[in-house]
Amino acid sequence: MVKRTSIESSIFSPAMERIDKLLKKLSEADAVTGTEARIHEIIRGELSGFADRIDSDPFGDIIAHKPGREKGSALLCAHLDEVGLMVREVEGGYIRVVATGIDVRILPGQVVKILVEPPIHGVIGIKPPHLTTKEERDKVIPIKDLFIDTGLSEEELKRRVKVGDSVCFHAPYQKLQGELRTGKAFDDRAGVVSALEVFRQVDPYYDLYLILSAQEEFSGLGATIASYRINPDLALVIDVTHAPHPDQPEYRAFPLNKGPVIGVGPTLNRDLYERLKAIAKELEIPYQIEPLPRNTGTDADSIAFNREGIPTALLSIPLNYMHSPVEVVSLRDIDRTVRLLISFFSHRPWK
């Protein structure tokens, strides 16, 4: 009997090196909800030579197509946008903002970038503890009281920054231990990296449409419109889910380095769920299962409920500290997601 060689035997494979470089490039790019076109050029460059058609739409989606071997259509989706802030007012040399998906608790003391041309860096100022009352120290500062200090004069700020301009975290991509990386916008650039790698490598059974969607963090508008237009026979969404940290309930946490997380619930198609599990077992890819008894909170909802209903599956990558500038992900989990989905889209997905 020939001993089977593990495909995960190497500590850091060439595939993970590619994933590492691409995740860094996309994490350090900036595309707050509504400004996804800022990274379209990067995405088009990554898809060049691998698609017979690459389109964009007025809502910020990128849509690519790759012909399949058999009649039918499948859709692969991950979202481009990241959480951020929006300029509310320029006041006395400072910028006041409103949040678009960010947890206000983490904002004081953060370094941010105002997405104008050229970008302006600033810091979210905070009153020193020496000058605060006990009551102030014990409560979360309302976002209406926060401000961005750029060091520019009020006149210069008002010339360059307008109400409605977007603001994002400024956070470098950094290596932690082993395959772990930290940075901003891994929700859902980790999914975008996975989708790009799958699309580039797969020889699809059905025509494969790739949607890198806009506005997932706000309304799901991008995935709704693009999937309505394509009307595929089936769809699969890649997003992120919560990894464990202290004081978090175990049932809501999925460890890093333990493989992708397959969603199961009434919104998601049971046959596709079973197919993903079967492929993972066949390829000896570790996986986890996330029960989702209501909506999924992802683009899977926008797609599954579209038209007469589109059979949809959800595959998530475990992520720590979601919607922060220090999100943490495992490159190995991304690599496993890619290998699982290459097999999924390479073969007939239905029994």
Automatic annotation (TrEMBL):
<dbReference type="InterPro" id="IPR051464">
    <property type="entry name" value="Peptidase_M42_aminopept"/>
</dbReference>
<dbReference type="GO" id="GO:0046872">
    <property type="term" value="F:metal ion binding"/>
</dbReference>
<feature type="active site" description="Proton acceptor">
    <location>
        <position position="216"/>
    </location>
</feature>
<dbReference type="GO" id="GO:0006508">
    <property type="term" value="P:proteolysis"/>
</dbReference>
<feature type="binding site">
    <location>
        <position position="79"/>
    </location>
    <ligand>
        <name>Zn(2+) 1</name>
    </ligand>
</feature>
<feature type="binding site">
    <location>
        <position position="239"/>
    </location>
    <ligand>
        <name>Zn(2+) 1</name>
    </ligand>
</feature>
<keyword id="KW-0378">Hydrolase</keyword>
<dbReference type="InterPro" id="IPR023367">
    <property type="entry name" value="Peptidase_M42_dom2"/>
</dbReference>
<dbReference type="Pfam" id="PF05343">
    <property type="entry name" value="Peptidase_M42"/>
</dbReference>
<protein>
    <submittedName>
        <fullName>M42 family peptidase</fullName>
    </submittedName>
</protein>
<keyword id="KW-0645">Protease</keyword>
<keyword id="KW-0031">Aminopeptidase</keyword>
<feature type="binding site">
    <location>
        <position position="323"/>
    </location>
    <ligand>
        <name>Zn(2+) 2</name>
    </ligand>
</feature>
<feature type="binding site">
    <location>
        <position position="187"/>
    </location>
    <ligand>
        <name>Zn(2+) 2</name>
    </ligand>
</feature>
<feature type="binding site">
    <location>
        <position position="187"/>
    </location>
    <ligand>
        <name>Zn(2+) 1</name>
    </ligand>
</feature>
<feature type="binding site">
    <location>
        <position position="217"/>
    </location>
    <ligand>
        <name>Zn(2+) 2</name>
    </ligand>
</feature>
<keyword id="KW-0479">Metal-binding</keyword>
<dbReference type="InterPro" id="IPR008007">
    <property type="entry name" value="Peptidase_M42"/>
</dbReference>
<comment type="similarity">
    <text>Belongs to the peptidase M42 family.</text>
</comment>
<dbReference type="GO" id="GO:0004177">
    <property type="term" value="F:aminopeptidase activity"/>
</dbReference>
